[in-house]
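User: structure tokens for MATE family efflux transporter, please.
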Amino acid sequence: MDKGANQATVRTFVVTNRSVLAIAVPMTLAYLTTPLLGIVDTAVIGQFGDAALLGGLAAGALIFDVVFTTFNFLRSGTTGLVAQAFGRGDELEEQAVFWRAVLIAIVAGIVFAVLAPLVAIAGQWFMAADPRVSEAMGLYIRIRLLAAPFSLINYAILGYVLGRGEGGLGLMLQLVLNGINIALCILLGLELGWGVAGVAWATVTGEFVAMLLGLAIVIRRFRAAPALPRHRLLDMSAFLRMLSLNRDIMIRSFSLLAAFALFTRQGAQFGTVMLAANAVLMNFFLIAGYFLDGFATAAEQLAGRAIGARAATPFRQAVKLTLFWGFGLAGAATLILLLGGADLVALITTSEDVRAVADIYLPWAAFTALSGVLAFQMDGVFIGATWSRDMRNMMLLSFLVFSAALLILAPAFGNHGLWAALHVFLLVRGFSLLAILRLRVRTAF
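Assistant: Done. Predicted tokens:
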């Protein structure tokens, strides 16, 4: 690509509502297929009318998320680095970032697949749930972790696509992945009666097919671009930068999942019905989160591109506009869940006991959109800018505050206190990052 053309592009780089929505709208739709998948999984198992199976699925999905979301840096870190290379007009670095992420994904994925039985045992020990819950959880983990290499490679593919701001392509890939998953979940889990095992095998198949499609698209694109020299791929300084970024994002992700793990474990101590009710409501939290993730993704790409182009004005525009749209959508999501949440609970589970308990705590889940919107948007900005150390440190601070709130509020107020501690966690995450954003902007530009 011509260097002068690149600089011209940098000078005319402007962030508008249209550029934000071009990324955020398709990715919001794409991300919503993930909690939709969670609802379908929960609804399929809920039709068996067995709270132990529902609790086992929730616990198994949590352990899976603890393992895989810890490696979410393969998506978010790749997005930030590709976006910055895109802002500089460096096509070779875009390719190099992608293949470095794929190499990490292959190694880590194979290790997780081999260690699946040990992960299942560790998860059962940590949750300390009823025997039937533990049995269902172990079965789910052992099968689903077989998809580890496919899932992690899909993270790298999506990170590359989003780093270039190609929200439409990201939507298509997520629709394929989760569409196949949902269809097979209903077929295997419900129609054929495989239950929890059917839900897990549906995920393995969906991840594999999506990986093949994504790799085919990306490799075909690279064939039409300049060839990547091997020394550029294996550039140790770039590898070390990526590993440093990934380390910080991994610590941040692990802290996030540790908070959710403590939330779920505490719910399990309140009994199987409470565990199942919280599992249903957490799907609503995920719906709200994935609504907001589309605009957080827009913040990642646009902030990263502005950092790469060293353009302060587009950076500020990206922060301002993604926050504006994020808060608007958060308010809408909260209202929708308050008005229609009870009907969704009834759709998800046939257990009257679970429905009754979930309805009591529904408002807590509905308001997570508003309490979490700033955290989501700030995460997007800091990931795109690759300010990973600040994000890591503020997440650790938030986790400590959450743990303290959990110790104080849960014993005093039961499940209400548990949900209140989650809101404290989300608010501290958002405001702590906002507090240091101004300093980072001054030093970056």
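User: Anything notable?

Assistant: Residues 23 and 167 are 5 Å apart (CA to CA).
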